[in-house]
Specification:
CATH architecture: 3-Layer(aba) Sandwich
Largest sheet: 9 strands, mixed
CATH superfamily: Ribokinase
Oligomer: single chain
Low-confidence stretches: 365-378
Radius of gyration: 19 Å
Helix content: 25-40%
CATH class: Alpha Beta
Order of helices and strands: EEHHEHEHEEEEHEHEHHEEEHHHH
Strand order of the largest sheet: 5-4-1-8-9-10-11-12-13
Strand content: 15-25%
């Protein structure tokens, strides 16, 4: 899988994430009856208006499932790329930055503070007049999530605003399929990343995003400018629908024609991955109780990228991804709390995967400074 990434000069990120719109997630566990009255398919991500967000949040109060030790509605910085970058920076101590835009409102300030607490470099996060994006994440009693983002009036980054300086010195640039709501921006970011000599990772985001943006996604993959691609089973199936292919294995082989490394995440069944001609299958972590799967793929990507950065084998990268992906489902929202990070570090050690000494020290400091939340294990 290559050599470890050398230490960066002070102040330079190893990983840069592109998230055109800053998002605040409103996460709640609800009964299924609420979802019957909300437009779109369960389990997907369909854009809604600000008025619909307000209506959904009002209805959530009547349909919540109590979660011990958590708020009825948990509010935190969200967005797939932000989830991945926050995990890499805060939990795995990889220097990261995020390129994007937030509004000049209270929600934008909340987004910034949450990522600052995780140590993310925000020098490329623009602040513009306007509102910050929001997303309602509805979680059923089995932990499956349905997302309804509101981006219509949100402040967002424009293609003409980004430059090579935003990606200077980066070894990896992380993109997400949601970026294809602004295709010119995403395509320019890929070009700038390549000019800087960075490798590019792309997560397909959701089956609805793949359905909407399939031609552009395929065009980008066929350009061979994407080095690493993540997809879950639903996204893989949607991508392959017109090809007459359905299985994760077939999707993995298809993606392998365009990218150096491809991963299909299989939820509780683990994952399959391909690097060149090498293919591996890794089982998921067993014996845990999933509270909320929001961010599971994002945090899998966080762990997998950590393995890539440190020159681990394909199998080891998958195992790290399975550990971090499992860690986030132990609580609400796409963020691993300090107690769950301790659990992740223990899992990494038990699976004989490398954990840097600075990560363990940071974990010990967090244990002393933060109240501990019980991790629910079956």
């Amino acid at each position: 899988m290559g050599r470890p990434v050398p230490l960066q000069p002070k102040g330079r990120p190893v990983v840069v994430g592109l998230q055109p719109v800053a998002l605040i997630d409103h996460v709640a566990r609800v009964d299924w009856s609420l979802l019957q009255d909300i437009p779109g398919e369960r389990g997907g991500s369909l854009r809604v208006t600000e008025e619909e967000v307000v209506r959904i949040l009002e209805e959530v109060k009547e349909h919540t499932i109590p979660t011990p030790g958590s708020e009825v509605i948990k509010v935190l910085a969200g967005g797939s790329v932000a989830n991945t970058i926050r995990g890499l920076s805060g939990g795995l101590k990889v220097p990261c930055s995020i390129v994007g835009a937030r509004g000049d409102d209270d929600l934008g300030q909340m987004f910034q503070q949450n990522l600052e607490q995780a140590g993310v470099d925000l020098s490329s996060l623009r602040v513009s007049s306007g509102s910050t994006g929001q997303c309602v994440c509805l979680v059923d009693e089995d932990g499956n999530r349905t997302m309804r983002p509101c981006l219509s009036d949100a402040s967002h980054l424009r293609a003409e605003e980004i430059t090579r300086d935003d990606f200077k010195g980066a070894k990896w640039v992380v993109l997400n399929g949601y970026g294809f709501y602004w295709p010119d921006l995403t395509e320019k970011a890929v070009e700038l990343a390549k000019q800087e000599g960075a490798r590019v990772a792309l997560d397909l985001a959701s089956f609805e995003v793949v359905r909407r943006s399939r031609p552009r996604l395929l065009k980008l993959l066929e350009s061979h400018k994407i080095d690493l691609c993540f997809a879950n089973e639903d996204e893989a199936r949607e991508l392959m629908k017109s090809e007459g292919l359905e299985s994760p294995e077939e999707c993995l082989e298809f993606l392998g024609n365009f990218v150096e490394t491809a991963v299909v995440m299989l939820g509780p069944k683990g994952c399959i991955a391909r690097h060149g001609k090498e293919v591996t299958r890794v089982a998921a972590i067993q014996g845990i109780k999933a509270i909320d799967t929001t961010g599971a793929g994002d945090l899998f990507a966080c762990g997998f990228l950590y393995g890539m950065i440190n020159g681990l084998s394909l199998e080891a990268c998958c195992k790290v991804g399975c550990c971090t992906g499992a860690g986030v489902v132990l609580g609400l929202g796409g963020e691993i709390d300090s107690a769950a990070w301790d659990w992740v570090y223990t899992q990494l050690q038990q699976h004989h995967l490398p954990v840097r000494e600075n990560i363990i020290k940071s974990s010990q400091m967090l244990r002393q400074e933060s109240p501990q939340v019980e991790v629910q294990v079956l």
